[in-house]
Design brief:
This protein is α+β, with helices and mostly antiparallel strands. It contains eleven helices and eleven strands.
Length: 295
């Protein structure tokens, strides 16, 4: 497929329509491509409804996600997760920014990514790009360009790509002291996803297949807070968001966050924010109303 050009880049993108068989398998490719960025290259802020994994082949890029920013270089990679907002732009380095990427989706993809460092809260990996990853990605792009009806072969190549990503993640994890161990990242990701289901630290450690004390000790060492406090913070942040941005009753919010009743939620919220949830909502609604009047 010929290269195309827009104001920010030269690019090659090959789309794919997943077959019914690919969806039954549980993983499917949506598109794959590569680019050469111009000096004005910038994407976002935008969110995705699928996974989009980028390999940096040369140059540098600044990635912004949630409240964090990170500079990524040749050999690094990042994966954008569904329903998360990202922004990225070229970071001038004197070398042309070039990337290759693949977009994919499916429950099997989500399950496979849990075995890597690439979570929604930590969507990048330093030194994760290998020759094998690039070769498999080139093969997938060739299969897409041929437009042949080979769903099993395409799904197999994608699974092979994700398997190599897990291997790269494990190798990268053992050689880097700046990132969380893979198993600990999985536990953290589990809490990030399931905190509203009333999970306990013991349930998380059981899911990981390790003791509660070992998990708590390692988590506290790497995160500077224990897992109980981390779970509480996740719940309180979501409670605050729902109080300010939704019309749900406080009881509905309490039960949706895994609390057994309104009293337990009110007690936890008051201890965390220093005021009861009803007073917190009323106060901020009054402030917003006053701001509107002043405008």
């Amino acid at each position: 497929m010929a290269w195309q050009e827009n104001g920010a880049e030269f690019y090659e993108m090959i789309p794919h329509i997943p077959s019914a068989l690919e969806r039954q398998i549980g993983i499917w490719v949506l598109t794959s491509g590569r680019n050469r960025a111009k000096s004005t290259y910038r994407v976002g802020p935008r969110h995705f409804t699928y996974y989009s994994l980028h390999l940096i082949l040369s140059g540098e890029l600044q990635l912004s996600f949630r409240e964090d920013k990170v500079v990524l270089k040749r050999g690094d990679l990042f994966c954008m997760h569904p329903d998360e907002t990202y922004e990225y732009e070229i970071n001038p380095s004197g070398t042309e920014l070039q990337m290759a990427w693949i977009a994919f989706h499916g429950p099997l993809a989500a399950a496979q990514l849990q075995h890597t460092q690439l979570s929604a809260v930590h969507p990048y990996m330093h030194n994760g790009v290998t020759r094998e990853l690039i070769a498999i990605l080139d093969t997938i792009r060739e299969l897409l360009a041929q437009q042949l009806d080979q769903p099993l072969l395409l799904a197999g190549r994608l699974m092979e790509f994700l398997h190599l990503l897990v291997v790269s993640s494990s190798s990268n994890d053992s050689s880097s002291s700046h990132s969380l161990p893979t198993w600990l990242e999985r536990g953290k990701s589990y809490m990030d996803v399931h905190f509203a289901e009333g999970i306990t630290v013991e349930q998380v450690s059981d899911w990981l297949g390790i003791s509660r004390s070992h998990f708590s000790k390692a988590f506290s060492k790497h995160m500077n807070t224990n897992p109980s406090n981390y779970l509480q913070r996740l719940r309180m942040r979501e409670a605050r968001r729902q109080l300010l941005e939704s019309t749900y009753s406080i009881t509905e919010i309490a039960l949706s966050l895994g609390y057994s009743d309104l009293f337990a939620f009110t007690r936890a919220f008051t201890l965390f924010y220093g005021t009861a949830p009803k007073h917190y909502r009323d106060k901020h609604c009054d402030l917003e109303l006053n701001d509107q009047v002043m405008l």
